[in-house]
Fold:
Amino acid sequence: MAAAAAVAAPAGVEDGGPRSRGEGAGEAVVERGPGAAYHMFVVMEDLVEKLKLLHYEEELLRKNNLKPPSRHYFALPTNPGEQFYMFCTLAAWLINKAGRPFEQHQEYDDPNATISNILSELRLFGRTADFPPSKLKSGYGEHVCYVLDCLAEEALKYIGFTWKRPTYPVEELEEETVPEDDAELTLNKVDEEFVEEETDNEENFIDLNVLKAQTYRLDMNESAKQEDILESTTDAAEWSLEVERVLPQLKVTIRTDNKDWRIHVDQMHQHKSGIESALKETKGFLDKLHNEISRTLEKIGSREKYINNQLEHLVQEYRAAQAQLSEARERYQQGNGGVTERTKLLSEVTEELEKVKQEMEEKGSSMTDGAPLVKIKQSLTKLKQETVQMDIRIGVVEHTLLQSKLKEKSNMTRDMHATIIPESSVGSY
Structure:
């Protein structure tokens, strides 16, 4: 548990208590940087770790027969109904773990009331929820992860959980380390003399006794040539200890190179022998099957010829019937073409007939209808009234003209009398 806490510490909280993930989520929503779309995945992974610290598998999942959610369960849409039920169940359990009573969500409960109750409990813990409640109804998204993460942190605070510093195991250093490259030998580096020797075990260890015997023979051959015999002053116990110390380093790993042509040739010979042995067994079966198939084909050919000879007249009749059928089809197509043309003409004639009928109906209705006569009488009376008015106006105009003429005439006579009177008076003088 300490190792798990140490691993999860950098992602979620610092030493001394759980850190608020809600503030980070709020900042990510406000800033909306390039990684804001993936921030809910990080929050969801932290939530899973916090739920494991709260032992939700034993206390919640097993009691309610629920499957454990994945690391990105509430971050991606999979099944909105199932995700919403899981969200309500986890939120109710976390609120109860945080020391506040809360009823579990039932199947027929109002989802809006459940969401409002969860948000009210979240605000009582001092957390902000500046988003519409409809964001939680889908059962997934950054707001769902934020709410569950805040409730998990409150539950961890209530049980008094604190993060501890990680403890690293102390590794004991070996006294002597031998590089593996120096201890490994390829097949080409092994001397041909050691290939024929027997090995003690299946791990390709070279027998130390054989090496000792070979070195002893070589030493004896060389010492025979020398005049003086060299004697060793090394202690046998020290020699045996040195041998035991060096013995693990004398391990020879013989690697078989798959690209070697000798291995390929051996494989080809093995496959060839296997193919030849299998061919001997299957060749007889194949020959027998071939003979049976050939005999069956011959029988089928002979029967086919016999049937053709017996049914030749029927075939000729069938061909004649086929020819008659093709001719009948051609005549039918020609007749069908004429019928289609005549139907088109008939449709055009019927359309024209309908138009003529409609015009006749309109004319008959107009002839039998008395409305036009009434309109004509009304127009005549109007014309008579207008003519009377025009006659009156004409009389008035004639009267005014007559008066104007009489007036002009009287004026002219007066003027004339006025001019005649002075002339007579002048002549009298």
Summary: The longest strand covers residues 184-186. DSSP finds 14 helices and two strands in the chain.
